[in-house]
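sorry to bug you again but im stuck and you know this stuff better than me. below you get a single protein, a line of residues and a line of whole numbers that encode the local backbone shape. mainly i need to know what kind of three dimensional shape the backbone takes. anything you notice is useful, everything is just below:

***
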Amino acid sequence: MTSVGDALLLIGWVVLGYYLVVNGVYLIVHIAALYGVRTDLKKRAAGTMYQRFASPFFPGVTVVVPAYNEEAVIVENVQSLLNLNYPELEIVVVNDGSDDATLSELRSAFDLRRIDAPVPFDVPSEPIEAVYRSDDAPTLRVVDKVNGGRADAVNAGIWLADQPLFCTIDADSIIDRDGLLQAVEPFLDRPEETVATGGTIRVANGCSIDNGTIESVDLPESRLAGLQTMEYLRAFYSGRLGLDRLNALMLISGAFGVFRTDLVREVGGYETASVTEDFELTLRLHRYLRERDREYNVEFVPEPVVWTEVPESRAAFSRQRRRWYRGLLDTMARHRRMIGRRRYGSPGVFGYPAFLLAEVFGPLVEGFGYVIVPLAFAVGAADASFMLLYFGLTVGVGVLLSWFGILSEVWSFRRYDRPMQVLRLLGHGVLENFGFRQWKTLIAWRGLYEYLRGETSWGEMRRSGFDAD
């Protein structure tokens, strides 16, 4: 065996060891998630959630919807918000300089009229050109502003919000009718401490939606969207729920999160220079509150669900995931002082290192292994047994973790309740290991290259619109 072959084989063993360490972390998170699911099921069985829903003390919520070129989905989205079961609610749609028919669709559907009075205070966003109120739906306001990006649009909505809590939701998403009630429940349980909550994101592709309401749940026909459906189950029911139970929740998704309005204003709102501003805000809140020794609660609530449209084209998927990876690198670098420091509690001691190992370096090391191990085999440094061990472990552990997420769904909320749906999801958990995962590692490497080049573009996903019967 040559020295080159020895080096390749050694690197292969290092990659395999790293992979096992990373997936050991994932396994800890997934086991914690199963305990979380059990706790939530007991809570539902006791009926305490619905007793709390009778409370007259629900805080008011402003739902902020940033919208840029969302003409295909914006009316269904707003209609779903108007259908929400919540006692005190206002809706602020921020048209972020769209150059399509987003604003005209809203004006036509909801009979908007312009408010003549100027905005009474400075808003930290690009200039606001007009504010509209609906005659048909008095709780709806539409803000028309110069384009500044998603974070800038959300900031405009936050500073115009009149309620103590605000909820962010993407324009391509539909909230379950009782979803906001469920997401706000921790603010009733721990009103002095709770500062942010997040719910579960599911894939809307393939579902039937009518008048802003999910009529029936099904899996998408597109294989790419189907693989993402399984991914989302794993990420939320296993990943987010497990991190929450370990008190190390690192991300409240911008697609569905509820925050204290005054606190987010206090920390300066969303970071407009970030392309994953939801992740950055969550970490900044952790740092801000820990550094001031304030008791607080950031919580994941698994039952409230938002349904979102995911990309069905390879190009759109690649753009989205490269942006996510660039934003991950940027946010981790901004908050690097958290790593391993007891001052920052579980987010610093466990959450940040876990994200660094699994989400930052994990896909890069995995992609490196897909090159090194076959190369070591080609030059005779690795035999067939090592190849089988490497790919057997990567595939086997990958399937196990995916099926954990599906198990959590089948055991708990059962939105996919037909046997054929469950079988298809289990099949996606196997199929993702043959091409899809490898492609995602290439996307991560490309995202790293773009980050090092200083790429900050958001990219655009064209909406196909929600299906309706």
